[in-house]
């Protein structure tokens, strides 16, 4: 359990698919269809600073000239230049400019300008990004410190424990996923009582498990408590520090930072949500979020229009079973309006990969007639050019069938999910 969770934590859950998170791979697929706000490392570090967490001095730059200036201003013995993208694994990443490594250490401020030139405006590909990588618009220029040991530490909301959990490993750094897979005994987990918070005893125990000794143990425990204060203060779902390192001079420092936030807390975390940088996300996904729709892009050619994450996964599986491949899925959620159905169709058909659309809606809270009206309106106004297979079930389904039948549109009705998937796959094969 700890291992699979820590592996998840190690992956930092940055990126699109991470918004449908598998919380525990050992159990059946559990999905959390929530859109979590992502911040860049430098933004997370600013929040950490304000909670008294130890991070090094840094500046942020979006041109090579500014990066060079920042490096000079730092007056540090050594400088670290870090590409800012919402994905981890940057240390071992590669840029489209040919430069290797999204994190570079140098003693020469002049080199910072040269390196920044090969980062800014180029895509960086890491283990956690799509193949084509993510464009780097910002770099962080920070004071580098010698690191004598790298540990891993995170606090996250864990459904299995109904509350926050601390996860740590004395072997942190860039290969935490491997540690979690090959040496699960090196991953330590501690459940936090939400009413009590992290006790001194728990913080010291985690610090010791992370391998901090002597005065470093107290320092690490203090950092752990401050990180928990931050976790609560900002309504985080996850605070991850990898590495939480120690220096030869005897300091405990957070060298990397990753915070996820609970979207339900947006109303009381307005300043943080105002920092949201959606430019890095999938443009269709960002557009979908505007209408409160959840969109996940996949590689196939059948668009899936569903309600509920469970039904989405089932739909994808059954398409697969019948030899097809889903192009995406768009989750309508409950309480849906006709205008959202229209927007949803617009988004689905905007994807050139889509060769057929499968609608699979189970009307509980959702009224099928609203869906049917939205579908017919969208088909007429958007001039639908691909086959459309519809399976509706539940609330007001008879009325919905009547609307679809009387529309005169070329819509294929399906009796159940199996039938729908078969017909959607066949509609493409027939072409
Ligand atoms: P990522 O997790 O995306 O690879 P990190 O910020 O963890 O990026 O950086 C990768 C590695 O670079 C760290 O594990 C650490 O060894 C080194 N590093 C990062 N920041 C510093 C720093 N300020 N001083 C010295 N080394 C650093
Ligand atoms: Mg890291």
From TrEMBL:
UniProt domain ATP-citrate synthase/succinyl-CoA ligase C-terminal: residue ranges: 306-425
- The ATP-grasp fold succinyl-CoA synthetase-type domain extends over 38-245
Where is the site labelled Important for substrate specificity?
A: 78, 146
What does the record give as its pathway? Carbohydrate metabolism; tricarboxylic acid cycle; succinate from succinyl-CoA (ligase route): step 1/1
Entry keyword set: GTP-binding, Ligase, Magnesium, Metal-binding, Mitochondrion, Nucleotide-binding, Tricarboxylic acid cycle
Q: What EC class does the entry list?
A: ligase
Molecular functions per Gene Ontology? ligase activity
* Subcellular location(s) per record: Mitochondrion
Q: Which cofactor does it need?
A: Mg(2+)
Tell me how the cofactor is bound.
Answer: Binds 1 Mg(2+) ion per subunit.
Q: Which residues does the record give as Mg(2+) binding sites? A: 242, 256
Record carries keyword Nuclease: no
User: Which PROSITE patterns does UniProt cross-reference here?
Assistant: SUCCINYL_COA_LIG_3 (PS01217)
Q: Which residues bind substrate?
A: 307, 364-366
EC number(s) recorded for this UniProt protein: 6.2.1.4
Catalysed transformations (reactions): GTP + succinate + CoA = succinyl-CoA + GDP + phosphate
Fetch the Pfam families from UniProt. ATP-grasp_2, Ligase_CoA
Task performed by this protein: GTP-specific succinyl-CoA synthetase functions in the citric acid cycle (TCA), coupling the hydrolysis of succinyl-CoA to the synthesis of GTP and thus represents the only step of substrate-level phosphorylation in the TCA. The beta subunit provides nucleotide specificity of the enzyme and binds the substrate succinate, while the binding sites for coenzyme A and phosphate are found in the alpha subunit.
NCBIfam families noted in UniProt: PRK00696.1, sucCoAbeta
* Family to which this protein belongs: Belongs to the succinate/malate CoA ligase beta subunit family. GTP-specific subunit beta subfamily.
| Summary of subunit composition and partner proteins | Heterodimer of an alpha and a beta subunit. The beta subunit determines specificity for GTP.
What name does this protein carry?
A: Succinate--CoA ligase [GDP-forming] subunit beta, mitochondrial
């Amino acid at each position: 359990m700890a291992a699979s969770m820590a592996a998840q934590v190690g992956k930092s859950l940055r990126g699109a698919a991470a918004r449908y998170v598998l919380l525990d791979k050992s159990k059946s697929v559990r999905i959390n269809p929530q859109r979590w706000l992502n911040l860049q490392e430098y933004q997370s570090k600013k929040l950490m600073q304000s909670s008294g967490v130890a991070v090094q001095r840094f500046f942020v730059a979006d041109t090579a000239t500014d990066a060079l200036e920042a490096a000079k201003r730092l007056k540090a013995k050594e400088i670290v230049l870090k590409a800012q993208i919402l994905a981890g694994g940057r240390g071992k990443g590669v840029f489209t400019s040919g430069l290797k490594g999204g994190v570079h250490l140098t003693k020469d401020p002049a080199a910072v300008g040269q390196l920044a030139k090969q980062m800014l405006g180029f895509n960086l590909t890491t283990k956690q990004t799509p193949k084509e990588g993510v464009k780097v618009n910002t770099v962080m220029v920070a004071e580098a410190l010698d690191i004598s040991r790298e540990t891993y530490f995170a606090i996250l909301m864990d459904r299995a424990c109904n509350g926050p959990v601390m996860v740590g490993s004395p072997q942190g750094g860039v290969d935490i996923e491997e540690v979690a897979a090959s040496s699960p005994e090196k991953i330590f987990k501690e459940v936090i009582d939400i009413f009590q918070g992290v006790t001194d005893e728990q913080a010291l125990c985690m610090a010791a498990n992370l391998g901090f000794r002597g005065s470093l143990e107290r320092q690490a425990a203090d950092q752990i408590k401050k990180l928990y204060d931050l976790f609560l203060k900002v309504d985080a779902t996850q605070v991850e520090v990898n590495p939480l390192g120690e220096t030869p001079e005897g300091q405990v420092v957070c060298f990397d930072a990753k915070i996820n936030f609970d979207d339900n807390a947006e109303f009381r975390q307005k300043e943080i949500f105002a920092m949201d940088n959606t430019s890095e996300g999938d443009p269709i996904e960002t557009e979908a979020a505007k209408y409160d729709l959840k969109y996940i892009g996949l590689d196939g050619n059948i668009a899936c229009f569903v309600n509920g994450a469970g039904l989405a996964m089932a739909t994808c599986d059954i398409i697969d079973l019948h030899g097809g491949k889903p192009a995406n899925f768009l989750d309508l959620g409950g309480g849906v309006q006709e205008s959202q159905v229209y927007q949803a169709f617009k988004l689905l058909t905007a994807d050139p990969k889509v060769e057929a659309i499968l609608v699979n809606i189970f009307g509980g809270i959702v009224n099928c007639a609203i869906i049917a009206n939205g579908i017919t309106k969208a088909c007429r106004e958007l001039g639908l050019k691909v086959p459309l297979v519809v399976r509706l079930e539940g609330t007001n389904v008879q009325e919905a069938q009547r609307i679809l039948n009387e529309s005169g549109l070329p819509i294929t009705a399906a009796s159940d999910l199996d039938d729908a998937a078969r017909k959607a796959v066949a509609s493409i094969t027939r072409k």
